[in-house]
Write a structure and sequence with these properties.
309 residues; alpha/beta; Rossmann fold; seven-stranded parallel beta sheet; four-stranded antiparallel beta sheet; 17% strand; globular
Length: 309
């Protein structure tokens, strides 16, 4: 039986092409049900307050950097979205005097315009946000060497190889409207993928690369970062891929309710828990990663039901 056509972007794959019953099952999950989706290799945590939530996210940075040594360097790959943890990271590092001379950081992604990554002068630059919200706030004597800050803004092959050269202890992420981590968006519905999206095994081979962004992703970033001005948002981005993600010892996804809705936060948890990997829902491919953690802010979980406004 042919899969449905997307209700949002007919020329693309996305979660609206799933079997409707799976979506209905996800919508019916309570916060208690989310906790019960945990299984070996998949942890679910719920935080009651904003303070707990973002402090826990910030401490993942600190924990990763504390485990780095000169002969066994390590680090964390982090997102823009959420960003609220970033100033906390700098404050904690400065407070405890944590020297980051052997530590590493990977930025997950960056916008691309006219075939080139945007500069830090671009108002939506992710590297700019990382620097302004976190790294430039760390005391000079504690900062990591500039070469240990890895952004996908130049040689993407070298960026990819760095995950083999340095331990990535944690890859953090948020979840977008199109159910991606980083910019691992589902592909266009064309060519070899006209009737079915790529197999999970095929999608997992994708390395750091420049991608065309799903229309939902463009709309989301205009809404969350550009005040609704879609003209500001590029249609391409460079992103960390599944290949590098599977080099990370743990993948930690943070659901603050700012970047996806109650249904989306339930749907991917259900798919990861049940081992339902479908590249139309890229986050679901984490069902095949050996160590994944979903973190929820309880007030943001909400209810996935009809509510007229």
């Amino acid at each position: 039986m042919a899969r449905p056509i997307s209700k949002v972007a007919p020329g693309w794959w996305d979660f609206t092409t799933l079997e409707p019953q799976l979506v209905r099952d996800a919508a019916g999950l309570s916060a208690r049900d989310l906790l019960q989706l945990a299984r070996p290799g998949f942890t679910v945590r719920i935080y009651d307050t904003v303070q707990e939530f973002y402090t826990a996210e910030a401490l993942e940075y600190v924990d990763a950097w504390r485990r780095s040594t000169p002969d066994n360097p390590a680090g964390i790959c982090g997102p823009i979205g959420p960003t609220e943890q970033l100033p906390l990271v700098a404050s904690i590092v400065n407070c405890v005097g944590l020297k980051l001379h052997d530590a590493h950081f990977w930025g997950m992604d960056e916008w691309v315009e006219d075939g080139r990554p945007v500069s830090v002068e671009h108002p939506l630059s992710f590297a700019r946000a990382d620097l302004e919200l976190c790294f430039n706030r760390i005391e000079t004597a504690l900062r990591m060497p500039p070469e240990d800050l890895h952004f996908p803004t130049g040689d993407l092959d070298a960026y990819s190889r760095s995950f083999d050269q340095v331990r990535c202890l944690i890859m953090q992420g948020g979840q977008g409207w199109v159910k991606h981590w980083a910019f691992n968006d589902p592909p266009r519905r064309e060519g070899a993928y006209r009737d079915a999206p790529p197999s999970p095994a095929e999608f997992r081979k994708l390395r750091a690369r420049v991608v065309d962004l799903h229309p939902m992703t463009i709309m989301q970033n205009a809404a969350t970062s550009g005040g609704g001005d879609i003209s500001l948002v590029p249609t391409q981005a460079a992103t960390v891929g599944p290949h590098e993600t599977w080099r990370a010892e743990r993948v930690s996804i943070w659901h603050a309710g700012m970047h996806d809705n109650p249904l989306g936060m339930r749907l991917t948890a259900l798919m990861v828990s049940k081992g339902i990997a479908d590249s139309a829902v890229p986050m679901s491919l984490l069902a095949e990663h050996p160590n994944v953690q979903f973190n929820y802010l309880r007030p943001a979980i909400g209810r996935a039901e009809v509510e007229m406004h």
